[in-house]
């Protein structure tokens, strides 16, 4: 999966939509970036913009937006309720998938350096990108706001990380950083009492509550030797929370910000609210997601709740998402649409890929006059079907009557199988995309020597990708052998024939993918690479033949053939 990141710049303009539209137009001008949300606020005179994509186009879009804001927003004339110190006040980069916060730091540094040098705007790095502890927290960097910049910026400890160490009167400063994905999440209670909702929030949030002597509500505050109030920490790290009443819904909620979903994921925060509410005679009736959530959060939640039921977790992503929605009551107040609420789904291209087609349409598309999809895509799909059959046997074994003590053993196999099947499904479209790149390269002009060189380079790159995709299909199929063999030997005996069909599919997929490796290898000039993939591929073909016979012998022994 390609790395996906989100950028959430805050611009110090929330009233003039003409200015906001010009800034967002710069973002939308960059290929590979999708504008997800624009949220202007008149009282704060501030607009929060959210866009996402792969790292390189995102930081290009961020630079263009910061540049346009510096041209259109005059901070010397700005007034607003929200703390601020720059035209682009803050610009965080946030990981979504395939990349960590730490891996985002170099991107934040590159963006900061370019903004500082090209636009002459003082830049401060914050959160994970910060170079000093006292500059990690955004509130500390922004303290004094725009009006205090001219004095603060002259202090050695507040010298900008990039850009001039003097006030830019028009643009002010900008804070650029890398931070974790923040999930805004509300949990619904069967009460209208804000005080009781707060009691749950104080139990759950990291900050906890102020310690009191005797009566936990009205008792005197317990203080340390310096006179500071002592706090009793809550259960969940990296969680902020408060109770409130929502008149529209006629109920109280615990409103939470999960600032590090790797420390406290959504499902654990939800369950702690359930536990706290139950101790206080209340019941959690559901929950509400505010904004977007990464796919992995929903998948982790689905697996968590299935494990609590002692059910196999090796099911499809759609089923995991459905279990998460129902277990947390995310659809209690309004429908939960994965296409709108899960960020990776919202970023998907609007057009249907092969894997989104119905079975008949896929077969008809394969049979059409177009050369793609071809044998490579079909090999990947046949492999996915083979792995799925093995996964099915694992799921049936996990639920088999009398095998209750083995549910987790087979669930683990099923989860591995589901992941391998999903990877092969992705390779169905990847193979066709690689072929299309070859066709596109062939159409490039070749009149001049320079054009011929560029066309040749594009052809070689596309050809190498057309080899790598089916080679990956072979590798993923080979990774499925242990699971399918174990299902044949130790899985639900009523489904042993399905494991055998799975083995047949895997052999066919490996052989088919190798044919595609061979035919594309003929057009690649990198002799060492070609030798490596052909030799490795031939070895996999030999090994899968031996493996298939062993599995089929096991199956034959089980069914008495």
Strand and helix layout:
Elements: E1 4-7, E2 10-11, H1 17-28, E3 33-41, E4 46-53, H2 55-72, E5 88-97, H3 101-118, E6 123-127, H4 138-142, H5 149-152, E7 174-178, E8 183-189, H6 194-204, E9 209-210, E10 231-232, E11 239-246, E12 251-258, H7 266-279, E13 284-290, H8 295-308, H9 317-328, H10 338-341, H11 343-346, H12 359-367, H13 375-398, H14 407-442, H15 449-479, H16 481-490, H17 496-521, H18 527-559
Parallel strand pairs: 5-7, 6-7
Antiparallel strand pairs: 1-4, 1-5, 2-4, 2-5, 3-4, 8-12, 8-13, 9-10, 11-12
Helix pairs in contact: 1-2, 2-3, 6-7, 8-9, 13-14, 13-15, 13-16, 13-17, 14-15, 15-17, 15-18, 16-17, 16-18, 17-18
Question: Could you describe the 3D structure shown?
Answer:
The structure is a single chain. Strands 1, 2, 3, 4, 5, 6 and 7 form a seven-stranded mixed sheet that branches. The mean pLDDT is 92. The chain has three domains: 4-178, 2-Layer Sandwich (Formiminotransferase-cyclodeaminase, Chain B, domain 1), CATH 3.30.990; 183-346, Formiminotransferase, C-terminal subdomain (Alpha-Beta Plaits, 2-Layer Sandwich); 356-559, Four Helix Bundle (Hemerythrin (Met), subunit A) (Up-down Bundle). It is of the alpha+beta class. Helix content is 51%, strand content 14%. The chain contains 18 helices and 13 strands. It has helices at residues 17-28, 55-72, 101-118, 138-142, 149-152, 194-204, 266-279, 295-308, 317-328, 338-341, 343-346, 359-367, 375-398, 407-442, 449-479, 481-490, 496-521, 527-559, and strands at residues 4-7, 10-11, 33-41, 46-53, 88-97, 123-127, 174-178, 183-189, 209-210, 231-232, 239-246, 251-258, 284-290.
């Amino acid at each position: 999966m390609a790395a996906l990141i989100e950028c959430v710049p805050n611009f110090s303009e929330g009233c003039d939509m003409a200015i906001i539209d010009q800034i967002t137009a710069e973002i939308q001008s960059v290929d590979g970036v999708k504008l997800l949300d624009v949220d202007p606020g008149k009282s704060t005179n501030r607009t929060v913009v959210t866009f996402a994509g792969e790292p390189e186009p995102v930081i290009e879009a961020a630079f263009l937006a910061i540049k346009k804001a510096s041209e259109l927003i005059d901070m010397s004339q700005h007034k607003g309720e929200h703390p601020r110190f720059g035209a682009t006040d803050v610009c965080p980069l946030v990981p979504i998938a395939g990349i960590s916060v730490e891996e985002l730091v170099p991107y934040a540094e590159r963006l900061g350096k370019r903004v500082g040098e090209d636009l002459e705007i003082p830049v401060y790095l914050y959160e994970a990108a910060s170079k000093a502890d006292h500059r990690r927290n955004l509130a500390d960097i922004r303290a004094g706001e725009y009006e205090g910049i001219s004095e603060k910026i002259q202090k050695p400890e507040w010298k900008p990380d990039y850009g001039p160490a003097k006030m830019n009167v028009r643009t002010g400063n900008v804070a650029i950083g890398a931070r974790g994905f923040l999930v805004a999440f509300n949990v619904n209670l069967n009460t209208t009492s804000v005080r009781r909702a707060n009691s749950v929030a104080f139990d759950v949030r990291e900050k906890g509550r102020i310690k009191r002597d005797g009566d936990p509500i009205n008792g005197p505050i317990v203080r340390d030797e310096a006179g500071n109030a002592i706090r009793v920490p809550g259960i969940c790290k990296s969680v902020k929370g408060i109770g409130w009443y929502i008149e529209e819904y006629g109920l109280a909620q615990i409103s939470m910000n999960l600032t590090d979903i790797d420390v406290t994921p959504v499902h654990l925060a939800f369950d702690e609210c359930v536990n706290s509410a139950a101790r206080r005679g209340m019941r959690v009736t559901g929950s509400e997601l505010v904004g977007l959530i990464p796919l992995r959060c929903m998948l982790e939640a689905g697996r968590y709740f299935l494990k609590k039921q002692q059910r196999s977790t090796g099911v499809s992503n759609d089923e995991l998402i459905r279990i998460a929605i129902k277990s947390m009551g995310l659809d209690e107040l309004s429908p939960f649409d994965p296409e709108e609420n899960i960020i990776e789904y919202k970023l998907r291209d609007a057009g249907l890929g092969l894997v989104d087609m119905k079975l008949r349409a896929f077969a008809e598309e394969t049979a059409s006059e177009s050369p793609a999809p071809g044998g490579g895509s079909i090999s990947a799909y046949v492999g996915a079907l083979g792995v799925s059959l093995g996964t099915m046997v694992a799921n049936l074994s996990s639920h088999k009557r009398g095998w209750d003590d083995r549910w987790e053993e087979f669930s683990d196999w099923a989860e591995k199988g589901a992941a391998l099947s999903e990877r092969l499904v992705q390779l169905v479209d990847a193979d066709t995309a690689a072929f299309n790149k070859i066709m596109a390269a062939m159409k490039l002009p070749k009149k001049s020597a320079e054009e011929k060189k560029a066309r040749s380079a594009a052809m070689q790159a596309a050809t190498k990708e057309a080899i790598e995709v089916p080679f990956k299909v072979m590798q993923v199929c080979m990774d499925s052998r242990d699971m399918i063999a174990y299902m044949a030997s130790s899985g639900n005996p009523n489904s042993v024939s399905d494991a055998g069909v799975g083995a047949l599919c895997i052999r066919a997929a490996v052989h088919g993918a190798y044919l595609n490796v061979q035919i594309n290898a003929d057009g690649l000039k990198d002799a060492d690479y070609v030798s490596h993939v052909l030799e490795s591929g031939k070895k996999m073909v030999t090994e899968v033949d031996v493996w298939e016979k062993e599995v089929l012998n096991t199956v034959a022994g089980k069914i008495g053939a």
